[in-house]
Amino acid sequence: TFTGCLENCMLYAGSHNIIKGNTFIGGGEENIKTITGSSDGLFLNNDFSGFMNEAMDIFGAHRVYVIGNKFHDNDASLRVTSPAIWAKAGAKDISYLNNEFYNLDVEIHAMVLGGCCWNNWDGKNSDGSLKYMAENVRAIGNTFRNINIISDYKFSGAIAAEGCDGCLIKDNLLEDVDV
To answer: Which of 160, 167, 168, 158 shows the shortest CA–CA distance to 132?
Structure first.
């Protein structure tokens, strides 16, 4: 059990690892953060609650599988929270499969495929054009219940694909979700 981490409870900076059956309670930034260059991670059956920012920040990693995790009852008492899970900064081949999201207060989205921060993104193609924030991110079979979106931003919703190339949102269940 990881409790009350100030910044990151776990920094995933490797490859070919399994993070399974852990409980994460609280946390000021990300409970789990991947870094650019990390790859081939399996995050299976973990439980995230009380987080103030992202529970998982998939930042620049490749081939990450997030399966059967629970994201719930976040802490929005000090600030409006970011999505529970987010793939960005060049993340590629990411799968969010059969996860549960419930009793969350989020600013705009509970899950993001891609990113928000085009103004902070410096990933460039050889011709100088900007790269996508994420590629081939899949959100399949996830359940969203009792998601409260706090912002009045007009493009809000439980799931978002922003700056994402080849991404797929399929067979997710949304119940009692603000839009």
So the answer is: 167
